[in-house]
Design goal:
Beta-Lactamase, alpha+beta, elongated, 12 helices
């Protein structure tokens, strides 16, 4: 037994044993690799990352925006030149960052360990900043990039204020135009039409006493002129809108177009009839006119449906046709000074008046336009309103 064990050990530790040689070379390779990793690779990696950090710090220092580095307790450990030029205090900036992490329910230490990042827009010291916050695990700090949006945001606010003022002025101008149309229409109806009627009656009286083809023709022409003036008067301002409201005015449009167009038009009135703020009534009526005119001119439709819904909480106008349809975004992008601005203005005015405007158009199938307002006190008629 002892002799066999001795032979086995001699075999194993024989310098010519390939297994022993393989183990020795394998062990040597592992030793050299570990030694290389510890003594050469790791120092080189640290040196590389340090140089990288130095280079990053160099670029950070010359960056136009503020760049900060904070440790896991959110204490400032680095700030670039832009920060010192800003005259912000270290305490204020630390409190600002602490407040962001607190309101965002983020734990700084875990944020760093997980290499998390997020973006947020906040106001700091009368300026508006977009913040990019990044956890850097390799160096155990948080880096914060500040992008000043103040000038852009203020410019956008001024632009929105300008647009709102422009829409308000345009709406007032439109209302004044409607009042002027109403005045002219009244003068036509009460003045010129009455004079023409009197003239027609005089021609009728002469024709009865001295009938002749010329007088008959003059009488017919006078009747046509009276009807034309009446149509002009109604087109300027439909008295049904002023006296009876939107539903009756929409009936006027529908009946008029049925007699003057080959388009098959239907009108659905849903809900009770009631009066609203004159701005809303004028806008809905003129929008309907604009939409229907566009359908007649461009849609090549056979059928048109106008639906006016007065529900408990909403006021809706829906105009649908079965025409060729169009691409609304392309229409907006292709508008120039020679183009019509009807639909675009319609959308802007709807938004300004607090409503909702949408177009659903499919090429070859037709178009559906929705104008909708929530029922608020602003929709109610104003007392002693001059309309």
């Amino acid at each position: 037994m002892e002799q066999e064990l001795e032979k086995y050990l001699i075999y194993i530790f024989n310098p010519r044993n390939p297994v022993l040689i393989g183990l020795l070379f394998g062990g040597l390779f592992v030793f050299l690799f570990v030694n290389f990793y510890i003594k050469i690779f790791i120092p080189q990696k640290i040196k590389f990352e340090t140089e990288k950090l130095k280079l990053s710090a160099l670029f950070s220092d010359y960056a136009p925006g503020i760049i900060l580095r904070l440790d896991s307790s959110l204490k400032l450990v680095f700030a670039n030149k832009a920060f010192f030029d800003s005259n912000y205090s270290k305490d204020d900036i630390e409190r600002f960052i602490v407040n962001i992490f607190t309101t965002s329910l983020k734990i700084p230490k875990r944020f760093i360990e997980n290499s998390e990042h997020f973006e947020i827009t906040e106001r700091f010291s009368e300026r508006i900043f977009s913040l990019q916050i990044i956890g850097i695990k390799e160096f155990s700090f948080i880096q914060v990039y500040f992008h000043d949006l103040t000038d852009r945001v203020e410019a956008e606010i001024k632009m929105r204020e300008f647009q709102t003022k422009l829409l308000e002025n345009t709406l007032n101008l439109q209302k004044n135009i409607e009042l002027e149309k109403m005045r002219i229409a009244k003068e036509l109806h009460d003045g010129l039409v009455q004079d023409l009627v009197a003239l027609k009656m005089g021609i009728e009286s002469i024709t009865e006493k001295n009938p002749s083809p010329a007088l008959n023709e003059t009488l017919t022409r006078s009747v046509n002129i009276i009807e034309d003036v009446r149509l002009i008067s109604r087109g300027l301002t439909p008295f049904t809108l002023k006296e009876l409201g939107i539903p009756q005015a929409l009936k006027f449009i529908t009946n008029y177009l049925k007699n003057s167009s080959n388009l098959k038009i239907s009108l659905d009135l849903i809900g009770n009839e009631e009066r609203f703020n004159s701005n809303i009534e004028i806008f809905i009526f003129r929008s309907t006119q604009e939409i229907v005119t566009n359908v007649i001119k461009h849609a090549e439709a056979k059928n048109l449906n106008i639906m006016f819904i007065n529900s408990e909480d909403k006021l809706s106008l829906i105009v649908s046709d079965d025409g060729k349809g169009f691409d609304f975004e392309h229409y907006i992008n292709s508008i120039n000074e020679n183009s019509g601005f009807g639909l675009l203005n319609m959308r802007e005015f709807t938004n300004y008046l607090g409503g909702k405007f949408s177009i659903n158009s499919i090429l070859g199938e037709g178009t559906n336009i929705l104008i909708e307002f929530s029922k608020t006190s602003e929709l109610l008629p104003v007392k002693n309103e001059n309309f």
